[in-house]
């Protein structure tokens, strides 16, 4: 057997950002490893056990590792990336290597984005594996956020995080090595921005929408993410399987990894094919719009002038949807129903559409909600569709109103929201917190 050579780092383009990635193995299955808070695709190979773990996976799959934007060898960016942008980066890497469908393995903080990716793009995900992951940081961390983040930043580059990531390793060489990984992974300023963003991540409402086979793995005494977070993931993801392992290490490559690697291989190779019926339900952001007082406007303008206004409206709608990667489901006479694979793009489209329509003298109102939809040929159905319609019904003229789920999923996207109170929505259970969007 030839001596093993470390994989070569390559770059995929995601928008105007370059994403560093490596591949190991030749298939027949693709495994995309979504990293946690700290990553550097090249230096990670210096850590004991890391390369061996990937090599074991590469015996039955093509294994892909990458650095998220703003980290490691990927382009540095201003601010922090949203979950939506992180999903785009995974798509970019998959497209660059020609991968149509892959197993997504989310580690630690990378698990939340992996959940959202699997629910949004089930046609590109054969299976989902979550290790040491959580749905909402706020559910597992207590105390003052600013103080916690300040402490992380102050000690960054000294391997302080190693105490909870790999507590089993205490040698000075290992500490020095991990300290260097911290410094190579991100600057203190970037770490602060990322930590504040990660504190806002909450995908709990999305867990029931995950339809791909899911395996949740966790160590029973994980020093960084308590095992209760893993139990919560497994309990809320339909038909998922939960396995726990002994140990305190949070890092997946550390400790006795043999049983875990065997479980992953069995899970992946035993569920390679997926029923096409699973693709009939996907996660999407649903947008409803309508023209305010359309009946009165039509009467005042006359039939011909009103028809020209509607034609301008429809043409403008298509332009905005194309620009923001939206999918027009149908025109509703005086509005549209559309879907998006990212909530940030959906909100920006609604805001831009409303502003542009006003120039034609057509005040719009819009409502958005993110949830699971049913694909019915060219049409869509499901509670999420009804919810978006009800949210729009609460919207004031020229207002873009969204549900709390949308605000939870666009943390770091540069959008602003103003509270519009708690409402009962006709035909839907409970009370719904609504927010007006702006930029």
Please state the structural category.
alpha/beta
Number of discrete domains: 2
Strand content: 15-25%
CATH-defined superfamily of the largest domain: Alpha/Beta hydrolase fold, catalytic domain
Q: Oligomeric form of this entry? A: single chain
**Tally of separate helices:** 14
Task: Say how many strands there are.
Answer: 16
CATH level 1 name of the largest domain: Alpha Beta
Mean pLDDT: 89
Spatial sequence of strands, sheet with the most strands: 1-2-4-3-5-6-7-8
The shape is elongated
> At the third CATH level, what is the topology name of the largest domain?
Rossmann fold
**CATH architecture descriptor of the largest domain:** 3-Layer(aba) Sandwich
**Largest β sheet strand count, sense and barrel closure:** 8 strands, mixed
Radius of gyration (CA) equals 23 Å
Q: In angstroms, what separates the terminal alpha carbons?
A: 58 Å
Give, in order, the helices and strands: EEEHEHEHEHHHHEHEHEHHEEHEEHEHEE
Uncertain segments are 271-279
- Helical residue percent? 25-40%
Description:
Helix 11 runs antiparallel to helix 12. The protein is built from 14 helices and 16 strands. It folds into two domains: 10-274, 3-Layer(aba) Sandwich (Rossmann fold), CATH 3.40.50.1820; 281-438, Nucleotide cyclase, GGDEF domain (Alpha-Beta Plaits, 2-Layer Sandwich). It has an eight-stranded mixed beta sheet, sandwiched between helices. Strands 9, 10, 11, 12, 13, 14, 15 and 16 form an eight-stranded mixed beta sheet that branches. Strand 10 (326-331) and strand 11 (335-340) form a beta hairpin. Mean pLDDT is 89; it is low at 271-279. The radius of gyration is 23 Å and the shape is elongated. It has helices at residues 50-57, 83-96, 110-120, 145-155, 162-165, 172-185, 188-200, 227-236, 258-270, 294-301, 303-323, 343-358, 383-393, 404-409, and strands at residues 10-14, 17-24, 29-34, 61-66, 102-107, 125-131, 214-219, 241-245, 281-291, 326-331, 335-340, 364-376, 379-381, 400-403, 416-424, 431-438. The longest helix has 21 residues, at 303-323. It is an alpha/beta fold.
